[in-house]
Design brief:
Blueprint: H1 2-12, H2 15-42, H3 54-61, H4 66-71, H5 74-95, H6 98-103, H7 109-145, H8 155-183, H9 187-208, H10 212-218, H11 222-234, H12 249-273
Helix pairs in contact: 1-7, 2-3, 2-5, 2-7, 5-8, 5-9, 7-8, 7-12, 8-9, 8-11, 8-12, 9-10, 11-12
Length: 277
Amino acid sequence: MNSFRAELLRLRRWPAIWVTLGAWIFLALLFGYVFNYVTYTSGGGNFSNEGQSLAQIYVQLLPEALPGVLVQGMPLFGGALMMVLGAIVAGNGYGYGTWKTIYTQGPSRRAVTLGSLLALSALVVGVLLLTLALFGACTTAIALSEGEALVWPPLTDLAAAVGAGLLVLEMWAPAGYFLGTAARGPALWVGLGLVWALVIEQLLRGVGGLLGPVEAATRVLPGTAAGSLAGAIVGPGGDTPGVLDVLSGPVAAASVTGYLVVLVTATVVLAQRRDVV
């Protein structure tokens, strides 16, 4: 807990952290509500939801659709930004000599690493709750401006969306932390990790339609698990990038949880067993 409190102090005074989290909030609002509302009010073609009518876009702006809107951006650019966040939290500590200093002052490496990961998780939880609050305010304002009654989704649906979003973001943040720890810096491996998450997995899923073994392999990829978990909340009929229906909701949740446990364990073992520098 001492390491956790010290890490929170470090992170909340670090401008790069707030820039990364601010980028997520900005993009989430932009793709969640701003683009769709501009499309609906302008009466023109579809801006970000190709193939959807204006009536379908309008439904997504109302409070009842909040669970799906909350999670739809998390598998792709939300996960990518959380991976960046995890990589800079872990990797920059090597460049600045932070970890070397801490490791030689007394706390065990396991305590330091787990405290740092716990602080990272606290940031993820905080930004998720802030996103939920901002989305709730946006959809409320839109509904009132359009003269609609405030019909909120069932509490169970909203809780499921928050839980799914938390699992997705919590998987990608330790993934970035592990890559930053492995490379002892945020640049190289976070770049490769983003290429994997944003490009390679998408290409493999495209090739999987032609090659059976590749399709089977894509079912166990982290992006597939995260996208399927979001897809279980969004439901059928969506065409949001990164949101899939490959796995069922329970299987996707178990896969994401498995990746989370493996990444945290691998990070702690790696930090314990190798040289300080």
